[in-house]
Amino acid sequence: MSSSIIITGASSGIGRAVSKRLAHWDGCLVLTGRSRQRLEEAKAQVEEHGGRAAVFPCDLTEPASVDDLVAYAETQDSVYGVIMSAGAGTYGKVEDQSAGEWSHVLEVNLLGPYHLARTALPRMATREKGHFVFINSVAGFKTFPGNSAYVAAKHGLRGFAETLRLEAREYRIKVTSIFPGATNTEWWDKQEGDFPRKRMLDVDDVAAAVDFALNFSKKGVVEELVLRHRAGDF
Ligand SMILES: NC(=O)c1ccc[n+]([C@@H]2O[C@H](COP(=O)([O-])OP(=O)(O)OC[C@H]3O[C@@H](n4cnc5c(N)ncnc54)[C@H](OP(=O)(O)O)[C@@H]3O)[C@@H](O)[C@H]2O)c1
Fold it and tell me: What is 3-227's CATH number, 3.40.50.720, 1.10.540.10, 3.40.50.1580, 3.30.365.10?
């Protein structure tokens, strides 16, 4: 029986590349993000590659919308996997950032994945199979000045994912965290400064890692993967 995979952040960057890469999945890819138009473009890309996709716009900072997303995905095929790629960042020293900016970064990168995992988990648990893949960052274990909210959110996300792995293994549900270094996406268009795009990973590198983790041995789990440009962080 085919099963669905929810992909957050599917409208752009890494999430979009993951959607294309998983076009071979035997089931529906449920693509989510806020921009319906960009999700429709991602869906068309999946279909061009022979896959099946459905679009469900959702703001991850709204828990009710997250509940609707999971319910919708279950109407396509029962949910097997959730790839959490949506993310947001701000830049600035602690004293220069508003509380609103700071908490928004936590809402998108940490609370959103929590709501989504919490909603999807009971359904996956009854079927005794499933896989959560978190697109974390090297900021999940390393610190960068000027990035306190993002670093705090990604450190928190690592801890959340590890705890979830221990709790969910009794239901045979796997949890993978992927920690990419800088990756060439629109993310960097939103940051001030001139960044060396050639010193970044490509989105397809990260998508290949997600595919590997999902299709790794039936009894094994890829717990964590760190991905970097061979020249290291800049
Ligand atoms: N690029 C890098 O260098 C890099 C490195 C390490 C880790 N990462 C991580 O990789 C993930 C993807 O980043 P990216 O580089 O692909 O960035 P991106 O191209 O800017 O994509 C960000 C995605 O997040 C979605 N999103 C943002 N706020 C949202 C919200 N409130 N609700 C639902 N979706 C929301 C956006 O969709 P909408 O705008 O349509 O809502 C978009 O699809 C992030 O978690 C990021 O932390 C990135």
Answer: 3.40.50.720
